[in-house]
Amino acid sequence: MLQVYLVRHGETQWNAERRIQGQSDSPLTQKGEDQAKQVGDRVRSLGITHIITSDLGRTRRTAEIIADACGCEVIADPRLRELNMGVLEQRHIDTLTAEEEMWRRQLVNGTPDGRIPEGESMQELSDRMHGALQSCLELPPGSRPLLVSHGIALGCLVSTILGLPAYAERRLRLRNCSISRIDHQQSAWLASGWVVETAGDVSHLDAPALDELQR
Ligand SMILES: O=C(O)[C@@H](CO)OP(=O)(O)O
Predict the structure, then answer these.
(1) Domains and CATH numbers, the chain
(2) How far does residue 142's CA lie from ligand 1's centre (Å)?
(3) Which of 26, 83, 142, 182 could serve as a FRET partner for 12 with CA atoms 20 to 30 Å apart?
(4) What tens digit of pLDDT does each residue of 125-151 get?
(5) 106, 149, 110: which is closest to 128 by C-alpha?
């Protein structure tokens, strides 16, 4: 059985300011750096063999801090990036116009091929996230990878493994530096293939960032 750990990056400046990041970037806050260290403390004894991260700055920084604790190299995979949110990136979520909010809602409501102008559809996000996950099956036997990615991207991955539509990610709270685990297995009892062991665990964080008002 292959166990894959999934970690959302630490809190960033724009997360705290409620600004849309997507494939734009902002640095980790001090709290975000502390959260990443707490992930490192939690996973250092789990035998992680590979840390594979989205190539955006906030995930790379989180991955480096975790890698220090685990003694692994960091491998970048752009397929683990956040959903491309096109022209709405860098905007404050509370200041969208009615038309902009409608673009955002097309994603939230699962409109087929819904996307923000110049952005990506949930299907495109799902396809590349599953591509990155399938690559883990090609690692040497006994590997235990940890993937560092983003809120919508990881929510989409977990939702679709469960057989839900990609936009069901909106019903899954994956806080900064939460840990999820998925396993690839052959089983007569559970479905064969990917199964979800746990999602959104924050028990290792002394002060989880961003409450339900923010995410
Ligand atoms: O892009 C963003 O603003 C958020 C959305 O959840 O993603 P993340 O902070 O996980 O990169």
Answers:
(1) 2-201 (3.40.50.1240)
(2) 32
(3) 182
(4) 999 999 999 999 999 999 999 999 999
(5) 149
Ligand 1 atom having least distance to the Cα of 215: 6
Active site residue 9: yes
List the structure tokens of 209.
């960032």
pLDDT at 214: 53
Read off the tokens for 57. Answer: 């700055």
Task: Determine whether the shortest distance from the Cβ of 151 to ligand 1 is under 6 A.
Answer: yes
Can you give the pLDDT at residue 187? 84
Q: 70-100: per-residue pLDDT in tens?
A: 999 999 999 999 999 999 999 998 899 999 9
Closest ligand 1 atom number to CA of residue 19: 3
Kindly provide the ipTM of the predicted complex, given to two decimals: 0.96
The CA distances from residue 181 to 7, 68, 119, 185, in Å, are 9, 21, 28, 13
Q: What is the CA radius of gyration of the chain?
A: 17
**What's the CA gap between 53 and 132, in Å, rounded?**
10
Which helix (H) or strand (E) segment holds residue 75: the answer is: strand 74-76
In the chain, the largest separation of any two C-alpha atoms, in whole Å, equals 51
pLDDT of 42-53, one tens digit each? Answer: 999 999 999 999
> Rounded CA gap, 182 and 173, in Å?
16
The crossing angle, in degrees rounded to 10, of helices 151-161 and 122-135 is 80
Q: Which residues contact 3 (CB under 8 A, 6 or more apart)?
A: 144, 181, 182, 183, 197
Asked if 167 contacts 105 with a C-beta cutoff of 8 angstroms, the reply is no
